[in-house]
Write a structure and sequence with these properties.
- The chain has 16 helices and 27 strands.
- With 677 residues, it is an alpha+beta fold.
- The protein has a domain of 256 residues: Distorted Sandwich (Beta-galactosidase, Chain A, domain 5).
- A hairpin with a 4-residue loop joins strand 8 and strand 9.
- Helix 5 crosses helix 16.
- The relative contact order is 0.10.
- InterPro entries: 6-hairpin_glycosidase_sf, 6hp_glycosidase-like_sf, GH65_N, Glyco_hydro_65_M, Glyco_hydro_65_N.
- It comes from Formosa algae.
Length: 677
């Protein structure tokens, strides 16, 4: 295994070239290329190796119908991120450029691409998903002539061909002496659920120095119903720069009563706000996010990996949105349609709660806002309380494709949500939130489990017919993690009630004390009633030690670790081994913790930036769930941090010998710093 890991690290180091510092990941490899997401919590723009292109734009919480399975699917919107550049009538493409490179600036959430065209021009452009103007993107472009050249630039709005009733326009809006050119495309989403409007325009910064007119003449061309373009030309003398921007805003009827006008207003705002002010606002907001940070001294690769993971969790979320995070974030709609799973509460939520309570509040508010739908679902299946869906969309109803048994049977998600809610309260101590939003959810979750358990003749309780965290088996009884999560949720309901001076339902405590946790003959925790040593998809039993703390004596923890680690699928999801790494770190075994930390994500990294794919054999990024698992190893394993009823504490941190120090900044509401040396 050590030889395999060493080979993987060598292969990645070959492709991840020019890794210059802890905030920048650079590459010159545009052949074996997996895109990286530039996102702001509302829109995600997936990068491309092709010059002046992005692959697609993902619209957060905007769902239509998946045409294959007829279930909801997050929308890939109109693509305003592509331009054509002609130099002396020759179109720039990946075939006629040289010295191509890309750099992801993690600190400022910006992706810069540069290349040369023959000996005629040097081109650099930077893509932003503006954090301050959350439905818009901005591409800042610099063309330097190395000899006299003629330039033609074509900005495009590309509408997916699955969209209905596309309409393309161009108009120049005037207010007094200000002219505002607006390219606009409008259409209905594929099955007509939403009306979508995208507006775009050019912004010229230094047009006086290029020997061109103050406002180049614009040419509008509707190439097809699905391609709307706006072009300008300019003459550029040797050693002169043409610096301009292309900006777009995409609004939908999901968020606006008049998306057409709002997309125009956003573009006009970007057009008439000085570039420095606009981008400084964006950078300032990212600077606030990075107050919660992880610093690894002495290992640049691990530092970049950790920052890339944290960057994605920040990029895929917003503290002002009441939205959650899908497993693939804002990078792809496949394979999970942009739905919300336990991935949020169990894997991504804990690092965000530790480092950014503003975003964490949005994640729990998302569930609170869908409480009524969860209550209806419980009734529909013959239960009480609230039964949250395995896959959630903007309706809060079950969105899992009918063929997947996880939809009807993976019930631990309901307990996972209550656990996240209680942890949010223990960190923030926001009793008003607990009273108005936290306890209503925790109480209904507890009532669900009271109605869901089955009593046994010996006074114990079973939870039957479920899919557990190990999804390789279905319809099992007394799954370890499902039972453990239910126990924890019931205990937290008792604590929450007492915190508010409410009398807890006595059944919560009675049932939580008597739900079965099965054992093998040697005392190893048994994954489910019929488990007999099969390969498992991911951690299940071991989740009872972390994060649930139900199995908490060292002998039992190590017994379960040694039994189940060899059972983990070699190709399983990226977060699987993170739990094992955390538990070994908490037992003081830093060597095994570090080994499993690396094994938990390095095989899932994809060139050229190190984006995580869900499994070792797939190539879909970015798997935000894996980022959450890796970050938890750093925070709750090596750094020894822990959520308790009294808030965040530190116990027994350990430091891998490969690192000089580990620093966690911005922890909790007090923004504490913890350094391990």
């Amino acid at each position: 295994m050590k030889k395999i890991m060493k080979l993987l690290l060598i292969c990645l180091s070959v492709h991840l070239t020019a890794q210059n510092d802890a905030w920048h990941i650079s590459t010159t490899n545009n052949t074996d290329y997996t895109g990286i997401s530039v996102a702001n919590g509302r829109i995600g723009m997936l990068s491309s190796s092709k010059p002046l292109e992005i692959q697609h734009i993902v619209l957060n919480d905007v769902y239509d119908v998946d045409p294959k399975y007829k279930v909801s699917q997050i929308v890939h919107g109109m693509n305003f991120g592509n331009l054509d550049l002609y130099i002396n009538d020759a179109k720039i493409s990946e075939k006629n450029i040289s010295n191509w490179s890309q750099t992801l600036d993690l600190k400022n959430a910006a992706l810069t691409t540069s290349f040369n065209y023959q000996n005629k021009a040097e081109i650099t452009y930077t893509i932003y998903a503006l954090r301050n103007i959350q439905y818009s993107g901005y591409i800042d472009i610099d063309v330097k002539a190395t000899e006299d050249i003629e330039i033609k630039v074509v900005g495009k709005i590309l509408t997916p061909k699955t969209f209905q009733k596309p309409e393309n326009t161009f108009e120049i809006i005037k207010d007094n002496d200000i002219t505002m050119p607006i390219l606009q495309s409008k259409a209905n989403s594929p099955f007509g659920k939403h009306y979508i409007s995208t507006s775009s325009t050019f912004i010229w910064h230094n047009i006086n120095s290029t020997n061109a007119k103050l406002r180049p003449e614009l040419t509008h061309n509707i190439v097809s119903d699905y391609e709307n373009t706006l072009a300008f030309t300019a003459t550029l003398k040797k050693d002169k720069h043409l610096i301009f921007a292309w900006t777009g805003a995409e609004c939908t009827s999901k968020n606006f009563s008049d998306p057409k006008s709002e997309s125009e207003r956003m573009i006009i705002y970007n057009l008439l706000t000085p570039k420095e002010s606009l981008l400084n606002q964006h950078k300032s907001l990212w600077n606030v996010l990075w107050q919660g940070d992880i610093i690894i001294e002495g290992d640049l690769q691990s530092q970049q990996d950790a920052r890339l993971a944290l960057y994605h969790l920040y990029a895929f979320s917003r503290g002002d949105s009441d939205l959650s995070i899908a497993p693939m974030g804002l990078s792809l709609q496949v394979p999970y349609n942009g739905h919300i799973f336990w991935d949020t509460e169990l894997w991504m939520f804990p690092p965000l709660l530790m480092l950014n309570q503003d975003i964490a509040r949005s994640l729990v508010n998302y569930r609170f806002n869908h409480l009524e739908a969860a209550q209806d679902r419980a009734i529909n299946y013959g239960y009480k309380g609230a039964m949250f869906p395995w896959e959630s969309d903007d309706t809060g109803e079950e969105a899992t494709p009918p063929f997947a048994l996880t939809g009807p049977f993976e019930h631990h998600i309901t307990a996972d949500i209550a656990i996240a809610f209680w942890n949010y309260y223990t960190v923030t101590k926001d009793k008003k939130w607990l009273s108005e939003q936290g306890f209503p959810v925790i109480e209904e979750v507890a009532n669900f489990w009271v109605s869901r358990v089955t009593s046994n003749t010996d006074g114990s309780y079973s939870i039957k017919n479920v899919v557990g965290a190990n999804e390789y088996v279905s319809n099992v009884n007394d799954n370890a993690f499902t039972n453990g999560a239910a126990i924890t949720a019931l205990n937290y309901a008792v604590k929450a009630a007492k915190e508010l001076d409410v009398t807890p339902n006595p059944q919560w405590k009675l049932i939580s004390k008597n739900i079965r946790i099965l054992k093998l003959q040697d005392g190893t925790t048994k994954e489910h009633e019929d488990y007999s040593g099969e390969i498992i998809k991911q951690a299940d039993v071991n989740l009872l030690s972390y994060p649930l703390n139900i199995i908490n004596d060292k002998e039992s923890i190590l017994r379960d670790l040694k039994y189940y680690e060899p059972k983990l699928s070699k190709h399983g999801p990226a977060m699987g081994k993170s739990i094992f790494a955390i538990l070994y770190a908490r037992q003081g075994d830093v060597e095994n913790a570090y080994r499993l930390f690396k094994e938990s994500y390095v095989p899932n990294k994809r060139t050229p930036f190190g984006a995580l794919s869900e499994t070792t054999t797939s190539n879909r990024s970015y798997f935000a769930t894996g980022a959450g698992g890796m970050l938890q190893t750093l925070l709750f394993g090596f750094a020894g941090l822990e959520f308790t009823d009294s808030g965040i504490i530190q116990k027994n941190p350990v430091l891998p010998k490969e690192w000089k120090s580990l620093t966690i900044k911005g922890v909790g509401p007090q923004n504490k710093t913890f350094k391990i040396e």
